[in-house]
Amino acid sequence: MIQVFDEVPNGIQQAPHDCRITAAGYQVALREVDLTVVRDKEALMMAFLSGLALTQSFGRNWDALYDVLTDPEQFSGRLAVVLYDYTHFKKKNAKLCAEMDGVLLDAQKAAAEEGRLLWLLAQERESAGR
């Protein structure tokens, strides 16, 4: 079975089983963004603030999120962002999810151009192991 961290990040992919342990074994920093209770952009930005362990100075907008994910001072080398409850979020908030996906995928591409790896991983409630 091919391990997600063996491959170059490519879009939003399914998170591997035992994601935390697997990421640690591959020396990939892992941050979890819980989308379970997100209903609007403000709540989404707060989920990223919390999940990425950002300071209160985080701008809470799409440009600020992109900047954080592409800033080598924030995250260098290898980062995986786990989007917890992604499919449910996407069904309930299609427009907001499409905007988020665009920013995340642009950040993934920019990171790759700078020689850094940014995995975007979807993990659902029933397989989250919480």
From TrEMBL:
Residues 30-121 form the Barstar (barnase inhibitor) domain. Belongs to the barstar family. This is Barstar (barnase inhibitor) domain-containing protein.
